[in-house]
Design a protein that fits this description.
The protein has 278 residues and is an alpha/beta fold. It has a single domain, classed as P-loop containing nucleotide triphosphate hydrolases (Rossmann fold, 3-Layer(aba) Sandwich). It is 35% helix and 21% strand. It contains ten helices and nine strands. A six-stranded mixed sheet has the order 5-6-7-3-8-9, sandwiched between helices. Strands 2-1-4 form a three-stranded antiparallel sheet, with helices on one face. β8 and β9 form a beta hairpin. It starts with 30 loop residues before the first strand and ends with a helix.
Amino acid sequence: MRQDTRMKPESPGSQTVEPPAVRRQAPADAISLRGVGHSYGELETLAGIDLEAPPHGVLGLVGPSGCGKSTLLELVCGLREPSAGSIAVGDAVAAEARLGRCAYMPQRDLLLPWYSAIDNAGLALRNQGMGRREARAAASGLFERFGLAGFAAARPDELSGGMRQRVAFLRTLIAGKPVLALDEPFAALDAITRAEMQEWLAAALRVDPRTVLLVTHDVEEALYLCDRVAVLSARPARIAAELASPRPRAEDRDTAVTDPEFVAVREEAMRVLREGSR
């Protein structure tokens, strides 16, 4: 019988998002960008970006392909410094300090091929000084929830693309950082599993709020998961519009995304995207 590897969404009443050994009382952190610009040599990618995400706020970034969404995420996380303007994550302004507040998940899973799935998932904890056995124990508590039961010992080349992405997302979440910076976290998943992952993340954020910056090309995903969505223009990216989500992280996802008000905001976002791509 084929094993069902799709992630089971967390029930809304659950009080456990991470294993007790991993949960930390991390301070809430706001994200603030003021006049942020960035260039790669003579290529200007970002221009005059002003954005705010309050503590435990979930801010989405959508825009045309190549407009600089991923670059903006890297700047917030301290992986790069902006060419202009300022960025703060809580009271952290310097790049190294911002990086200490953010758990960053890039588009590629970047799993270590010589590590098992469970060791890849626990890598962030190992980097924080936790022993291998303890890191494995902490990660194993989430494997079934992520549809990875039975694959703890599998190497990355034995996993499907979607399963690899789930391991990468688990590694990001388990780091325990107050800010999650997610770059297309569910892009590699099939439509059904992607919707279930969205529901799980929404439930997780309801019971264990984090400040989240989400980059996605999926407008519906952004409006469902985020409080607000910033629509970027073509390069050099500017903020073309900021839209409030009608029903962010609603327990009933299907009802939320088909609600007439939600559909209207989604159509407005698509209209701004089309105009901003010209």
